[in-house]
Amino acid sequence: MRRFIFGALGAAAIALAGAATEAKTIIRVTLQLPATHPLGQNWLSFKQKIEERSGGELELQLFPSAQLFKDKEVPGAVGSGAVEAGSAYLGRFTGSVPAVDVVAIPFIFKDEAQLRAAVRQGSALRKILDDAILKETNNRVLWWQAFGRNIYLSKGFPIRKPSDLKDRKVRTYGKIQGWTVEALGGAPVLMSGSKQFLAYQQGAVDVGMTGATAVKSRKLYEVMDHMTLTFDSAIEFLAVMNNDFYNSLTPEQQKIITEAAAEVEKELRDAIYQKEAEAVEFVRDKMTVIELTPAERAEWEKATAGVVDRFIAETGETGRRAVEAIRAAAE
Predict the structure, then answer these.
(1) Cα atoms found within 13 Å of the Cα of residue 273, Cβ hemisphere only
(2) By three-state DSSP, how is residue 49 classified?
(3) In 1, 52, 120, 259, which residue has its Cα 20 to 30 A from 306's Cα atom?
(4) What's the whole-number average pLDDT of the chain?
(5) What is the pTM of this model?
(6) Where are the domains of the chain?
(7) Cα separation of 321 and 331, whole Å?
(8) Class of domain 2-329
């Protein structure tokens, strides 16, 4: 009899555990960067908030370092429901919404204040781009993840003047970056972030474009020895969720996710320039860090001035509206 009772109790416990598991809503997140990167920490902050506020009904599982998908695969993977959520570089959505590349136009942002105003939740730019991404890809934008600003890497030679890129093979991460390199006389080579280290190590490219925080988190200082702080364009990622999955959630769960998303977007936006500065200081004794003078920056700006016109010509009315929204944010 005792064995029967224990057996019955054990079966009941297993059934209850199974029911508890079934009650949870699992959100798998694909991230190409390490969990230690500010974008990974940003997702972990989001995880803590939604799990606590949902009483454990929502559970987030983070898969960093491109374990599930490369970032170029994220829009399709999230849109199809192959994974519930993920982060991808904004430019990965250009195949469906070409105008998203507007933030990559060199020197379109005068300063941090203009960038913040242009990309804040509810801004004219966000409405144009977020709505288009949802419509075209089934990716619901939860929040924008500030990554920092663009810098250049090289090995064995410094990059200070635009002419220093002439005839160099340059790793890029988007179409507009490619146009920028072409304007500077270089040859763009589109490459995902996870492939940088090996490409630099093997000399597959001469120059790299990336963000300062990635130099630290990916240990790129081990294979490149110069870093030039051009800070010519913003690097933005999107935290996205499959729209069908989002719509399957209860109104309470949607509210938890939306509110937490707004909070972590602000957290990262407030911290990213400090993180960027810390990354630069971290590599100063490992690389030669080149900071441009105002006159040198003006030379870079002049050399790349035609990129915005090329952008508008290719993206049409939506692109023009996006450029105008950024310019209006400076007023």
Answers:
(1) 10
(2) helix
(3) 120
(4) 92
(5) 0.82
(6) 2-329
(7) 16
(8) alpha beta
